Amino acid sequence: MKIGFVLDDSLDKTDGVQQYVLTIGRWLSEQGHDVHYLVGESRRTDLPNLHSLARNINVRFNNNRMSTPLPVSKKKIRALLIRENFDVLHVQMPYSPFLAAKIINAAPDSCAITGTFHIMAANKLSELANRAVRLFVSRSLRRFDRVFSVSEPTARFAKRIYGIESDVLPCAVNLENFYDARPLKKYQDDYTNIVFLGRLVERKGCHYLLSAIKRLQQIESAPIRLIICGPGPQEKSLREFVNRNNLSKIVHFIGQVDEEKAEYLASAHIAVFPSTEGETFGIVLAEAMASGSEVVIGGDNPGYRAVLQDNKEHLINPKDTEAFAALLQYYIRNPSARISAKKWQQSLVKQFDVNVVGNRFIAYCGKVVAIRQSREDN
Fold first, then answer.
1. DSSP assignment letter at 318
2. Other C-beta atoms within 10 Å of 32: how many?
3. Mean pLDDT of the 158-173 span
4. Phi, psi torsion values for 120, nearest 5 degrees
5. Where does residue 237 fall: left (phi above 0), alpha (psi -120 to 50 degrees), or beta otherwise?
6. Who contacts 343 (Cβ-Cβ below 8 Å, separation ≥6)?
7. Where do the domains of the chain lie, and which CATH numbers do they carry?
8. Which of 259, 283, 309, 350 is surrounded by the most beta carbons within 10 Å?
C-alpha cells in the first residue's frame, strides 16, 4: 500500500509523536509498503518521501512545546495528492485546520483516512482549546474511516471532546535493540543503580526524584547510585540541589545518551520516570522494560498508568517524598520483589513491540482500503 503519514508538527524533533510516526513508518517501509510523510516545516534530509508543506511557528499547547503550521495553499495540497495517489492517509490527532484538515478535505474518495489520537487535555484551558479546534475541523472529522488512540485515557478524551469512537492501539516501539542490552560494566558492583532517563524539565519530575533520594539517604544505609541521563534547562538547578545536599558522591549526571541508551537502562536495578503530567503513553517505560531494568517505576499520570496497567507497585506520586523514598527503599531491600517485577514487565512489554503494533495497524488499514475500493468499484 501507499501510505501517507500526516503530521502538523515538524519531523525534525524527537518527541513522542514524531517517534511514533518514524518507528511505524520505517517498519512499514521494511515490509515493502510505500511510505510518505506529509508534515509541517521540516529541514532534515535523511528521510525519503518527506513532504514539508508549511511554515511553522512555535507554541505552547497542552503543557508542551510544539510547532503549528501557518495556512497552506489548497492548490499545493491537491497537486501532491493527485501526484501520489495514496491508498491511506494516517493523521496524527488532534490536528490543525491549516494543514492536516486541508489534506483530509482534499483527499479523493478512493483514499482511506485513518488517525491516531496522541494526547489528552492536561487542564481546563487545554480542554477548551481542544473544543475550539473541534469546531474548526468538524467537516474533516466526518471523513475518517477508522481512528485509534494510544491508550484508554486517550480514547476517552477523543470520545468526550471530539465525539469520536476509537480503538486502542498502543504506540509502536522499536524494541529490537533493547531486548539484547547488557548492563554497563562500570555499574556492576555492590551499589543499587537507580536510573532516570529523560529531559530535565519540570514535568519530567527529576527534582522530585532528587528530593526522594535525599530522604532515602536518611533512612537507608545500603549503597545506592543515582544515574541521571538526559539534558535540559533544569540541569543547573538540579546540580545545585545535589551539591547543597551533599549528594554529589552518589548522583551522576551523564547528559544526552544515544548509542548507550539501552545499556544504561539495562544497568538499572530501579528505573524511575517520575513525570507528573502531559503523558499519554510511555515509550521510555517500554524501552526500560525491554532492556531488562529490574523494576520500572512511573509517575502516576494517565499515560504511564495505562502502560503499567494501573499496578500500584510500579506507580508513584512524585510529589509525595516520603512515599517515594519508601517505595525505592522497598525495592532496594527486596531483590526477590525486583525479580518478580522484572518477570511481569517482560511479559507486559511485548504488546508494545513495533512488530505486534505494526501488524495490527496494517491489518486495520487493509480492511478500510478494501471497503473504499469496493465502493469505488460499485
1. T
2. 7
3. 93
4. -125, 160
5. alpha
6. none
7. 2-174+353-377 (3.40.50.2000), 176-351 (3.40.50.2000)
8. 283
Tell me if residue 238 falls in helix, strand or coil.
helix
Cβ neighbour number for residue 182 with a 10 Å cutoff: 12
Query: Which residues make beta-bridge pairs with 89?
Result: 4, 113
Strand partners, 295: 270
pLDDT score at 378: 63
Q: What distance in Å separates the CA atoms of residue 307 and residue 292, rounded to the nearest whole number? A: 16
Q: Which three cell numbers stand for residue 329?
A: 527503599
pLDDT tens by residue, 242-280: 999 999 999 999 999 988 999 999 999 999 999 998 787
Using one digit for the tens of pLDDT, what is the confidence trace for 39-98? 999 999 999 999 999 998 887 655 566 788 999 999 999 999 999 999 999 999 999 999
pTM: 0.86
